[in-house]
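Support case: user asked for a sample of complex input and structure output to validate their parser. Sending the pair below.
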Amino acid sequence: MRRFFAIVALLALAGSAFAEIKLQQVDRKINLNSQFARISEAVKAKNVGDKPVSEVVFCQLLNADAVVSLYKVVNADSKAELTVTPTIVEGAPAGAACFSAKLASPLAAGDTASLTVSAVLAKAQVPHPKEISQVDSQLMRYKDNLYVLSPYAVSAQTTEVTTPTSTVKSYTDSEKPVSKSDNKIKYGKYDLIKPWTLQELSVHFENNKPFKHILTYVKEIEVSHWGNIYVEERYEIKNAGAAHSGSFSRLKYAHSYNGKANSFRDLRAVLPPSARSLYYVDLIGNISSSNTRKTVQSTIVDIDLRYPLMGGWKVDFMLGYSVPLTGFLSHTKGGRRKLTMDLASPLEDVFVEDMVVRVVLPEGSTNLKAVLPYDMDQSTDVKFTYLDTTGRPVLVLHRANVASPEHSAKFSVEYSFGAVSILREPLLLISVFFCLFAAVIAYNRLEFTITRDDKWAAARDKEVLATYMEQIAAALEDEASLMAGFEAATRAVRDAEDVDAAQRKRAAVEKGCRDLEDKVKPLLAAVESRSARVAGQVREVLERAKALQARHAKQLSDRIDLVKKGSTMGEVSRKLAPGQDALDAARRDLKNAIETVFGAY
Amino acid sequence: MSSEAHYQSGASLVETVRRYLTKTKSQELLIRSTTLISIYLLAFCIRLFSVLRYESVIHEFDPYFNYRSTIKLVTEGFYEFWNWFDAESWHPLGRVVGGTVYPGLMWTAAILYKVSNFLTACIKLRDICVFTAPFFAGNTAMVAYLFGKELKDTETGLVAAALMAIVPGYISRSVAGSFDNEAVAIFALTTTFYLWVCAVNRGTIASGVFAAFAYLYMAASWGAYVFISNLIPLYVIIMAVIGRYSRRLYVAYTTFWVVGGILAMQIRFIGFNHVLSNELLSWNAIFVALQVWELIVFLRAKLGDRKFGQLAYLLALGVVGTGAAAVVILIASGKLNPWTGRFWTLLDPTYAKKFIPIVASVSEHQPTTWASYIFDLHVLVFAAPAGLYFCFKKLTDGTIFLTVFALTAIYFSGIMVRLMLVAAPAFVLLSAISISATLASASRELRLHAAATEAAKSAPAAEAAAAAAPKKRAASKRAAAGSDEEPLPSRPAANWAVLGLTALAMMSYAGHCIWVTSEAYSSPSIVLISGWGPHRHVLDDFREAYYWLRHNTKPDAKIMSWWDYGYQITAMGNRTVIVDNNTWNNTHIATVGRAMASNETEAFKIMRQLDVDYALVIFGGMSGYSSDDINKFLWMVRIGGGVYPDHIKESNYLNNGDYTVSDRGTPTMLNSLMYKLSYYDFGNIMTEHNKGTGYDRVRGYEIGNKDVSLEHLDEAFTSEHWIVRIYKVKDLENRF
């Protein structure tokens, strides 16, 4: 229905509707002091019809390749921005781009509205001559309509053109009054101009400002919930000024005051203050010429291109950095997450012909929704990168003809993300490593031999022998700890009352030793069946162990005897010292023997 | 077995772990594996100086071609690469890259790339290429460990791995970014030798086949595979001569010959050369000889001595006759041409210098000086001969192979600096044997001494048994070590001194290796850095100019430069070049040399004929960069004069035997294209304080002709420090 009404409204406009509005006063300013043409018009529109009017149409004449990068209409009183939509108007001359601005409240009959129109045109300045040499200065030509192009009748209007310098080769001066002072050319005031009146305005002037055109700009924002947002920007940049012709002399470039012509080499990027891990590279590696400064509000990167760009020269590069999540990623009330970032290029004073912004969200993000400051084409994609299984959802935003700084703005993307999804990648890693270790364990435990020949049997025997030996060694260690208990018990005997406890301990230890012996016996037999030599060695060790046990027993009984006799502690120690020395020697001996026999297994 | 009671210790988990860790065997395993892992990391990390100091970038010249080929392989697939005809180089001839390249390195990098991406590691292809060499250096150290273990024992293996990890002779070609054939080829070489020694020791077909596959990798990677296929027959001959020929050797060689030969022939660049080339004559001849010998042994066993004698006489006549006839026929039909330049170069080190200027012009083809032995091997130069002593002391099949390998490698390394690379593993293994043997004997003496002292201490005690055991053990150990001599009275001080000296030598070796790596071998040469700290200044002129070519010339523009820069221009500038580092066509290179050496008008004709759009020269007079084209001009004149003696005469460029571009320079020199392109616009510049204008900072004098004007060329681009200068060749004047 709305569309129907719009068409009806259009038809109505096309008929006689334009007669309802009269522009009482238009003051137009055309600023050519950069690579853009920045036009602002202060308009007083009066409804001279008898019905309220809700839309006002503005038009701009475009020459050659010029494009409208931005078109904005603001109510001068309330400072409120009006909704602007491109529209086609019948009767408009070729090359005119028209926009209809919807007023906040319909303009009643007889009322007047003050509106401010601002437009940014790119490629509107055309180099003339098209090619210049290294020492020439760059001349541009700008063409427009001398009168404000409008479907409405204009009662009074003035135009002021500002050029970068006072050097103006020529300008249209057919319609008086015209005046030029310094770098300003003033036209008007002109009275009572009919709708669609065409009259060429042409200014030919010097403009040595760099024409920094970014042919393609791709920005990829990759969010990791583990604490980082990675931003990588790819640029293909061209000097769109007058093309360089003839030779390029490094001597002139470096040493002549005018040897640089319209070239530029430096760019400035303004990044968030928390930006870190910056890199500035191209296809063949680092570009070793950039500088970074940190201020409170921003990180400023002064970039030098690989080589100076003379007119028509191109180069490409990549700029990357990381920012922390804080300040960029937040939770919304609905439990969703919201990423807020800069939308356009951080470079100052550039024109971007084609901008693509890719927002890569973590795996498992759903329901992506973008909140944009201006219209962009949206689509989705999937990206596979580190440890991805299903791929990360990508929101792709696209827009042509972006001007800096007018289009610098924030945008946000809202999405849902389950808390468990963050564990996806660690779990994946854990399970992979688990499987790996499990496979190694399985490989070690299983046998993959195809033929069971003598070699296999020998190896197998050796393995089995090793397990028995290991177990015997373990038993011997257990025995050693029992012996340590024995010794502690011996030391604890200080007077007659301790004797009983010591005897009990002795019985327990001896029982333990007997148990161990029982356990070792079948193992020894098994060893015997495989290698008599090794069994002999083991037996020797066991005998030593037994001897040690006997020594311990003797030491204890000697001590008990002495204590019972009532000797002093000093006396006891002295008397038992030789026995203790022998005991220590025997223990060391046993330890050596165990190492020799069992060390290899 | 179930009837046997299985004893299980009742110890807790902590106790089990403690027990496990205190066991000598597991301690040894732990120490050994930790050491090996550290060595691996060390081998990798020591090669990263260039990445830390500069960036992750491909170095030098040849690696750029390999990088470009790898990109081709990864993006367009195996078959496209296999059949690759590169029209971007050697214009207008082109180059059949698929058939003239050793593809092992590219395969390796492509596989690493695919695998890491499959595992979602997403490493960039450039980083894969940059880190291939350090990665393989780690692998080589591990192979050195296995090799040392096979030759002698585990300790030798560990020492070999440690020495191999940081030997400068190998680091020189394997720092991060040095993406060259040698990076993987040294790994392939040591692996082949290791598996070959295994094959000889085991004498099984399977081990021979393993060695053959390692040989395939080597043949796919580097032209020095010929070294292997000559060394192994030489080893077989030596084994036969000293009477150690065995059935194991026969099985190993025969398997290796059959499987390895067939596999190597699959590489397009090698193909039937593997059978026909005289470089591999010994490889094939020894195979035939072995078969004949085995046949003789077989017949002798079957026929008995008398009949066999008659047969042998007839056979000998027949073999000599047919052999002579075969050689004559082969030489006559051109299949066998023994006297190529390459052959002579290996026998006579000065041959190339005299007769092949293009070979002599490459600095890495110069004969090696003594200083570079010390520089590249340091203490190994002294330790290796000691290793030879230990090898001879206890001869095994393995140590004989090592000896043969080492002696030939040392000979070849004396011919060309580049072959130092092959000698490095030999030096490492020999040194490992001597160092580990020294350390082992010294520490064994010390241990015995300690045991004896302990025994002596406990001897006075009542128990004599306690003393008896260590002595007996010591005696048995000594017997096991195989020394028949009476044990010398052990002097701990001397042994400590030996250990200390060895440690000192090892420390100074390590220090030297680190120093050499950081100072000499870690510069990518594509980026130059001068000064330190705040005065650090980066000269990035090469990439600046190549990138300019990439973006601001027609996509089909042809660039003429001296061949050194061909690979870099095609890889970084993505433009067609006339000649590049492949140097397969000497005439084409000579034509470029002639153009550079001619006057502008003459050069313009040649450049028109070659379709040249831009001429590129490297010029150091402004920045002091000394390996520039004026310094290489000598070779352009010589190579050009070698093919076009009527047009280019070296004497025209010499003033009293002196190449100079000062005012003493000859008119031919000062009018040559090279002079003009280098010094255009240079005559009026003050380069150094207190010097006149046009002062060349490399040559150290003012140039002869300061007023250079160009008629047929136009300066198109000059980099910031004037190192790269590019000129556009003008079209012909309009003729009305």
